[in-house]
Structure formats: structure tokens, C-alpha cells
Design a protein that fits this description.
This protein is an alpha/beta fold. It has helices at residues 48-57, 75-78, 81-88, 99-102, 178-183, 189-202, 219-227, 239-257; strands at 12-15, 18-22, 28-32, 37-40, 65-69, 91-95, 126-128, 133-136, 139-145, 154-160, 163-167, 208-209. α6 packs antiparallel against α8. The protein is globular.
């Protein structure tokens, strides 16, 4: 039985104009640009109400959403995009190679593997390409293609309140597993692309790591530090490199286990 409320987590301000609005385990982050709101990922369809509640509890209006940036085309990140766009009119952005995931052309959203059926197909408003920049108000986000987990995984980097933020588009090795790739007739080249992408973004200076899953950046633990009085709980210039190392090592371990 689905119990979406079990994914609830108190919304909070991470740093500057960047906020966590839900959920566990699939994250959604809000950026206040001064001229409208940007949302990074939506989570599952059945937890959208938690994200909307989180936005409102922080004093923002969901109808001020201007841009929805999707990290990649898997169900736990774009599942609520169609409903959110129909409700608020937000413009949707996703890495161009993942457009067929979003619009239902390819059955690769991972919904089936998660125990769901993808009934939320939509045509994204803006297909993103490597090197694109998105500017709204005081925020300018650089988009860097980091394929592997999906072909259209897009990583995002921006500055706010004197800190540099970074979010990788997707590091799960599940979609690069031998059985999954063989089942869908996908190329094993995605593994090398993933490793190359990790090294490509390693040079990016990141003070605050945003995860599209709460486990990526120890979000729950850092939140407890934050409410205990540590205003810089999320500021950690070393976290980005450690995160990339862990992601690389998980894939290499999986490849070794398949031999």
C-alpha cells in the first residue's frame, strides 16, 4: 500500500534563497530568484501535495513557479511534472535525450521497476543541451550534460548568497546494471559516459551540494545540524568531491560484481 505521507519532511531554508521542499527519498528544491520561483524536480505524482505544502509553508506561492528543472527522466523525479504544469502553468525543462522518456515514446522512466505505471506523459517545453544557461531574476543556472544514469541527465550549477551550488543529474547505478541494459537492448557505453561525466564536473567549485535524493548530501543529518543552530550545516566544499568518488566507486564495484 502506498503511504505518500511517509515521505514527508519539514521544508526548510538551506542557504540564501535555496530551500528544501520535499521529499524522502526523492528531493525537490526551490530557488527564489526575486522574479519568480525555480523548482528542481517534482518527486513522485503521489507526493506532489507534500511539495506544494512545503512551498506554501515556507511562505511562497506555487503559482509563482516559473521554471521546473528536471534532473532526468525517471519517475521519481518527473512523475509529478505534468500535474504541476497543468496546475500552475510552470514551464518544464529537461535534458533533450530524456524527452522521449517524458513524453512516453520510450518506456524507460523506471516506473515499472518502482512498481508503478507511467500515466503522466507530457511534452517538455524546453529540451536542454550541454552548456545551456537559464537565467531568472538574480539566479543564472549553468547546465552540464552528465549522461549515464539516463542519456539526458543534466547537472546544474549556480551561485547565490556568495556560495556556489551544484547538483548532479543522477548517479544511481541501477539503470547501468547489466540485466537492465540487456533487458531493454541498451548500450553499455552509458557506463563510460557516466565515468567521464563525473570527471568533467569534478572541476566545478561547489560549496553546497544539492542532492536529487536526500542521501546524496546527507540532507536529513545536515537539517538536524541546521535547526540546532549551525547556519552553515550545508556549506562543505569537500562534499562534492567525496560524492563524485562514491558515485564512481559504486559503478566500478557493480561492474566488478558482474564479471
Amino acid at each position: 500500500m502506498i503511504k505518500p505521507w511517509e515521505g514527508a519532511m519539514t521544508p526548510f531554508r538551506i542557504y540564501g534563497d535555496v530551500y528544501f521542499v520535499g521529499t524522502v527519498p526523492a528531493s525537490a528544491h526551490l530557488i527564489d530568484t526575486g522574479e519568480g520561483l525555480i523548482l528542481l524536480d517534482t518527486g513522485y505524482p503521489h507526493t506532489l501535495y507534500l511539495v506544494l505544502e512545503g512551498i506554501r509553508r515556507l511562505g511562497f506561492d506555487p503559482f509563482d513557479l516559473k521554471i521546473l528543472l528536471l534532473s532526468h527522466g525517471h519517475y521519481d523525479h518527473l512523475g509529478a511534472a505534468k500535474a504541476l504544469r497543468e496546475y500552475t502553468g510552470v514551464k518544464t525543462y529537461i535534458g533533450a535525450p530524456d524527452v522521449p522518456y517524458a513524453d512516453g515514446t520510450l518506456d524507460l522512466t523506471w516506473a515499472r521497476e518502482l512498481g508503478y505505471v507511467y500515466n503522466e506523459a507530457f511534452t517538455p517545453d524546453v529540451p536542454l543541451h550541454d552548456g545551456d544557461a537559464i537565467t531568472l531574476g538574480r539566479i543564472s543556472i549553468r547546465c552540464i550534460s552528465t549522461p549515464g544514469h539516463t542519456p539526458g541527465c543534466m547537472s546544474y550549477f549556480f551561485e547565490n548568497a556568495g556560495k556556489r551550488f551544484g547538483m548532479h543529474g543522477g548517479v544511481g547505478v541501477n539503470s547501468m546494471a547489466q540485466d537492465f541494459l540487456m533487458r531493454y537492448g541498451l548500450s553499455f557505453d552509458c557506463r563510460q559516459e557516466f565515468l567521464e561525466g563525473l570527471e568533467r564536473v569534478r572541476k566545478e567549485p561547489v560549496d553546497i551540494l544539492l542532492g536529487n535524493h536526500v542521501g546524496n548530501n546527507d540532507e536529513q543529518t545536515r537539517y538536524l545540524r541546521l535547526i540546532a543552530g549551525d547556519a552553515d550545516a550545508f556549506v562543505d566544499p569537500t562534499a562534492w568531491g567525496r560524492f563524485l568518488d562514491r558515485s564512481r566507486d559504486r559503478l566500478l564495484a557493480q561492474i566488478e560484481s558482474e564479471k
